[in-house]
Amino acid sequence: LGLGGKSDPYAKVSIGLQHCRSRTIYKNLNPTWNEVFEFMVYEVPGQDLEVDLYDEDTDKDDFLGSLQICLGDVMKNRVVDEWFALNDTTSGRLHLRLEWLSLLTDQEALTENDSGLSTAILVVFLENACNLPNKASRDPSSYVKLTVGKKTFTSKTCPHSKDPVWSQVFSFFVHSVAAEQLCLKVLDDELECALGVL
After folding, report:
1. In the prediction, which pLDDT does 49 show?
2. How many other C-beta atoms can be found within 10 angstroms of the C-beta atom of residue 51?
3. How far is CA 181 from CA 74, 108, 122, 184, 189, in A?
4. Does the pLDDT at position 195 exceed 90?
5. CATH of domain 107-197
6. What DSSP element (H or E) covers 48?
7. Does domain 3-99 sit in CATH 2.60.40.150?
8. Which of 84, 143, 187, 194 is the most exposed place for a label (fewest CB within 10 A)?
9. pLDDT value at residue 20
């Protein structure tokens, strides 16, 4: 707790390697975030939703508590809306509303988006490139930057090859299928210049 017995809480929410952070609510012991986070779940059972609460400080943030929710229960019930007791602390509860959404094949659903949530998921299989140009006297050490909206992923670097093989998969949430585009840039790691843009 900070001066005056107040805290500046924020939450770190994660599923597997996907992480989100809430905004900080300053000087409040009963914060209301009203934030929405979207996650892709690849394995149920096997993945849990983890929430860690912290008190933001200028030097080191203090741990306030945590909780772990089995996603199998959320998948079964489709909607979970309840208060959860925090672990690793003597008091405190956290209210969460969790919704399990399944993929649809109905293309008309792609245009319905009043909520600000995603309407689609784009999965990109980045396989390989052929005959990349040399920007120096050697073969390029190339990597790819993939961007949809505000989300950018960077592939691994394939050193010194005109025919790099990445064999990687990237997944994007898409909010507007009509307006958002996939941008790809092939870059040389050592020269930091573009070898091509798509």
Report:
1. 96
2. 19
3. 32, 19, 10, 10, 24
4. no
5. 2.60.40.150
6. strand 48-55
7. yes
8. 194
9. 96
